[in-house]
Amino acid sequence: MAEMELIRRILETLPDGEVTDVRIGLHWTAVALQMNGELRCGLASTLPEAHEHAAGPDAPPAGWLETRSGRALAELALSDRPIQIGVGMAALNALLPRRPDKWREDNAEELIAHLGAGKKVVLIGHFPFIPSLRERVGELTVLEKAPQPGDLPASEAPRVIPQAQVVAITGMTLLNRTLDGLLALCAPGAQVLVLGPSTPLSPVMFEAGIDVVSGAVVTQAEPVLRMVSQGAHFRQIHKAGVRLVNLLRQDF
C-alpha cells in the first residue's frame, strides 16, 4: 500500500478536535488540540525544506493554523510540502483514538533485540541505541541517508533488505514518501517494524504488511510544546512528557 493511500486510510478513522496550538520546531513539529475535554498533543518530524524567498509560505496560513479544525490540519499530511506534511502528521497523531488496552510498553530497542536474537537485522535510520543493539542481535546493518561511521548509505537498501529477517524502519519514511519502496524490498516472512515518534499508532498500518508500530504518546502537552518550540532533540522531549509504546499486529 503506497504511503498516500495508507495516510488516507488512517484519516478515514479519525474523529475531529479543536486545535489550540501548533509548534514547528527545529527538529520536531507538535499539534495540540482539545478532544472531549482532554488536551491532546501529537508529534512528527520537521522535514528539512530549502527556503526560497520567491516561493509561497511553507505553512499557510502561518500564524493562523490553530483556526483550522484538527481534521483539516491532519489533511496536510497529504501535501507535497515538507513542512505541511509534518504539521499534518502531528495533527493526525494527536487525533488517533487511544488504545491503552493494546499498548505494550517495551521500548523499540528491547523489541528489536528480542525479535533479532541470532538473526540478520536491518535498521533504517540511525537511532541512538545502535551500539548496544549491535551486541544483542545476530547481525545488524544500519542504512542511513547521511551515513555515520559503521552505517551503509541508503542506496544499499536493495542489496541488504531482502536478506534481513527483521527490518526496522524509521517512521520518517512515511513523511518523506520512501516507506512503500522499503516495504517492497522486505523478504516474505520478514518481521517488519516501523518506529519513532512520527509513527501513527494505528492498526491501519498493519494493512501495509507491517508487524509492529512503535510510536509516542504525549502525556504532558505543555512542557512538550515548550521543548519543541525551543529546538529540543527527542531525548529532551521524551523526558518532558512522552511515553513510548508499541502496537503489535498479533494483538488485533
In short:
With 252 residues, this protein is of the alpha/beta class.
Detailed description of the structure:
By secondary structure, this protein is α/β, with parallel strands linked by helices. Helices cover 29% and strands 24% of the residues. The chain folds into two domains: 3-98 and 217-242, Enolase-like, domain 1, CATH 3.30.390.100; 108-216 and 246-251, Rossmann fold (3-Layer(aba) Sandwich), CATH 3.40.50.11590. It contains ten helices and ten strands. Strands 6-5-4-7-8-9-10 form a seven-stranded mixed β-sheet, with helices on both faces. The chain has a three-stranded antiparallel β-sheet with strand order 1-2-3. Helix 9 packs antiparallel against helix 10.
Strand arrangement, largest sheet? 6-5-4-7-8-9-10
Number of strands: 10
Q: If you average the pLDDT, what whole number results?
A: 93
Indicate the CATH class of the largest domain.
Alpha Beta
What is the name of the CATH architecture of the largest domain?
2-Layer Sandwich
In the predicted model, the low-confidence regions spanning at least 5 consecutive residues are none
Q: Strand pairing plus helix content: what structural class? A: alpha/beta
Shape: globular
Number of helices: 10
> Could you say how many structural domains there are in total?
2
Beta-strand content estimate = 15-25%
Q: What share of residues is helical? A: 25-40%
Order of helix and strand elements from N to C terminus = HEEEHHHEHEEHEHHEEHHE
Radius of gyration equals 18 Å
Q: What distance lies between the first and last C-alpha atoms, to the nearest angstrom?
A: 19 Å
Reported by name, the CATH topology of the largest domain is Enolase-like, domain 1
What's the story with the biggest beta sheet?
7 strands, mixed
